[in-house]
Amino acid sequence: MLYDFAIIGAGVTGAAISRELSKYKVNVVVIEKLSDIATETTKANSGIVHAGYDAPAGSWKAKMNVKSNPLFDQVCNDLYIPFKRIGSFVVALAGQGTGYIEELYQNGVERGIPVEIIKDLAAIKKLEPNISNETEAVLHAPTAGVISPFLLAIAMAESANINGVEFHFNSPVQNIENMGKFFIVDTPSRSFQAKAIVNAAGLYADEVSKMAGDETFKITPRKGEYLLLDKMGDFVRKVLFPVPTKKSKGILVSPTIDGNIFLGPNARDQDSKLDTSTTLSGLDEVIEGGRKLIPNVPLGDSITNFAGLRAVSDTNDFIIGESTKVPRLFQAAGIQSPGLSSCLGIADELVDIIKASPNLSGTEIKLKENFHASREKPVIFHDLSWSERDALIKQDKTFGHIICRCETVTEGEIVQAIKRPIGARTVDGVKFRTRVGMGRCQGGFCTPRVIKLLARELNVDEEEIVKREPSTRYFFGETKDFRKENAPIMNGRPIQQ
Q: Which of 120, 215, 241, 327 has its CA 20 to 30 A from that of 145?
């Protein structure tokens, strides 16, 4: 089959572009090297929708963030994605001066973004009671918000799939051959033919671009480490930024969409595109930075730490548009912060560029009459009233069986996650769709139960269920056989244990 478009990468940017293209009468395939949607940069993201005042004037970052921010309300409403506009503070502490936040204020005014500077500590404390007493002033941007990055990506991919977009996983791109009027994209399992390529490959966008014949940019991985705390009500109410550095927006403190609190990320460039380990020095840096904003942050309520990698281009800006070297290669590369905040605008902008390209004159790109803007609303048992829960359980008793105690996730929700369009096939796939295993015990209680449900619903042996990728297995054989093979030796004979 000859596709009109092959999108390489199923992170939040690729998912947004796939949904935007699904509005048109074109054949689209998404090719993803890993096992699911949003399993790399997107999953380890701060989950913040920035207001848009920060990026340099005239940059793609600034234009796409400003364009994208207002679009979230409609998309989240259509796709039943939790989203809260809680607002953000940029915090100037004593001795830092207010010059920088005044500059950001002017950016906001010029870009039509609602912003205000608050210099009265009592007024600031009324909005954010636990903020540092050293706070001299804050820039308040009420249109900033919080969202689940993986739920956003999964929902947009589901929507695209409902509207005809194909998704192929475990399909790393090995080679791209330009045949003149179309490309051949080779993966281990099969080859795809497409008239045009959309490069949304995140950390690997420079390598994909090089395969297609464009070597004009380079991607450097930038690690960001996080500390995640338990749910604490409104202990932190807004997204709190420090005065930023040249490399990043700095270490922040913020609520998540689900009520947890996180500290981070720091910013450390590295060569490896695979190393997402956390370090003692990195976490110390995160804690020190977080305490500057919230001195009494309760570190004893930490439940996990993790790291993610951002795809930083050597232009230090997004790379958006048709390649100047390779016609019909459309780039959505270098999508670092504010990438999540910009994904809807990027998708809209890139599709406009595609429609205007003279190199696609033979491809009709017309809107569908029957585009489905919505999707079936997922059941979130935790959010239901007691009467709604009772009614649901009477219809389907699996919703009365709690699998994850920390997050109140039921068997019915897990089965739903497996059976949805582009359904979960791994433990992490269930986790990112339902929050199972994301609570205080971090899966210590519920993981074996999730494995059993996946095996049952997919009709496979439990030994075949993996955490995330084929290499992340849970089972390696019978315990008794493993113990025999690894038994200590004394006088040439295994010691019985």
A: 120
3-state secondary structure 426-454: CHHHHHHHHCCCCCCCCCCCCHHHHHHHH
Element containing residue 178 per DSSP (H, E): strand 175-178
Which residues on neighbouring strands pair with residue 219, listed in sequence order? 313
For the annotated catalytic residues, the residue numbers are: 50
Q: Which helix (H) or strand (E) holds 48?
A: strand 48-49
CB 436 within 8 A of CB 409: yes
Confirm if 435 and 407 have CB atoms less than 8 A apart: yes
Cα three-residue angle 70-76-80, rounded to 5 degrees: 165
End-to-end alpha carbon distance in the chain: 59
Residues 393-407 have pLDDT tens digits of 999 999 999 999 999
Global pTM exceeds 0.85: yes
φ/ψ (deg, to 5) at 46:
-65, -20
CA pair distance 350, 327, nearest whole angstrom: 14
Q: Give CA–CA dist 339/191, Å, rounded.
A: 30
CA distance 105 to 88: 13
Residue 458's SS3 state is helix
Domains of the chain with CATH codes? 1-80+148-218+314-377 (3.50.50.60), 81-147+220-306 (3.30.9.10), 382-464 (1.10.10.1100)
Q: CB neighbours of 11 closer than 8 A, spacing ≥ 6?
A: 37, 38, 40, 41, 42, 153, 200, 202
* Among candidate residues 1, 4, 19, the one with its CA nearest the CA of residue 359: 4
Name 305's bridge partners: 227
412-416: long-range pairs with CB below 8 Å, 24+: 412/379, 412/381, 413/378, 413/379, 413/380, 413/381, 414/450, 414/453, 415/453, 415/457, 416/378, 416/379
Ramachandran area for residue 38 (φ above 0: left; ψ -120 to 50: alpha; else beta): left
* Model pLDDT for residues 151-184, shown as the tens digit of each residue: 999 999 999 999 999 999 999 999 999 999 999 9
Task: Give dist(CA 87, CA 115) in Å, integer.
Answer: 10
Task: Indicate whether 25 pLDDT > 90.
Answer: yes
Write down the residue that tokens 């902008």 correspond to. 349
